[in-house]
Amino acid sequence: MDLAVVLIALAVPVILLIWFVTMRNGLVRLNVRVDEAWSDITVQLKRRADLIPNLIETVKGYAKHEAGVFENVTKARAATITGTALANPAEAAKAEGQFQSAMKSLFAVAEAYPLLQASQNFLGLQSELSDTEDKIMASRRFYNGGVRELNTKIKVWPNSFFAKSLGFSERAFFEVADLAAIAEAPEVKF
User: Fold this and answer.
1) Which helix (H) or strand (E) covers residue 110, if one does?
2) Is the model more confident about 132 or about 190?
3) Which of 1, 23, 77, 84 allows an S-S link to 52, with CB 3.0 to 4.6 Å?
4) Residue 94 falls within a domain, yes or no?
């Protein structure tokens, strides 16, 4: 009987240690996955921001009197790649809504110029922009999926007792505040 008690006394701490290490490693993996997913989003936002000046310059050649639209798109573009927008999902979501509204205005201007609609440069830029928008959506879904997994693992019992003391905290989803602004990607048909 003494041997059984000694074995149980040794087994319980070993089992608890294994559980604790497994729980912590799982949280670390999820945290890294969420960081990677956020990085993917910022890469795509940067790619889109790099395309916008080319698109604006192409449209400017045809619509010189639409300066207000170009200024709004430029400001919205800058907001999507500032430090706060790239570091914080809530700020990124706000900037994303403003950007989508500005892009709708730019495409509305472009629709008024038939020669612009036929420009291969403009069509190519629009195609790249559409592709980038698709990649941003995919990156957002991947990020939000990782956040869901991490937040769930942090909240479940008994992890909830240890996760915060180990430095793990819930992450914010990348949710756009103005859903109407992003309900549709900017139209690319002409």
Assistant:
1) helix 89-111
2) 132
3) 77
4) yes
Task: Specify whether the CB–CB gap between 41 and 133 falls below 8 A.
Answer: no
List the domain range (segments joined by +) for residue 77: 2-182
* Number of domains within the chain: 1
CA gap 186, 171 in Å, rounded: 29
Chain position carrying tokens 């559980």: 19
Does 163 fall in a domain? yes
pLDDT in tens, 143-159: 999 999 999 999 999 99
What is the arithmetic mean of pLDDT over 7-23? 94
Q: Is the pLDDT of residue 17 over 70?
A: yes
The whole-model pTM stands at 0.70
Distance CA(142)–CA(50), nearest Å, equals: 23
∠ CA 123-100-139 to the nearest 5 degrees? Answer: 85
Which CATH number goes with the domain that contains 158? 1.20.1440.20
Q: How many CA atoms does the CB half-sphere of 68 hold within 13 Å?
A: 2
* pLDDT value, residue 54: 81
Asked whether residue 34 is assigned to any structural domain, the reply reads yes
Q: Is 68 exposed, middle or buried (0-12, 13-18, 19+ CB in 10 A)?
A: exposed
Structure tokens at 5: 């008690």
190: in domain: no
Residue 155 token pair = 């909240």
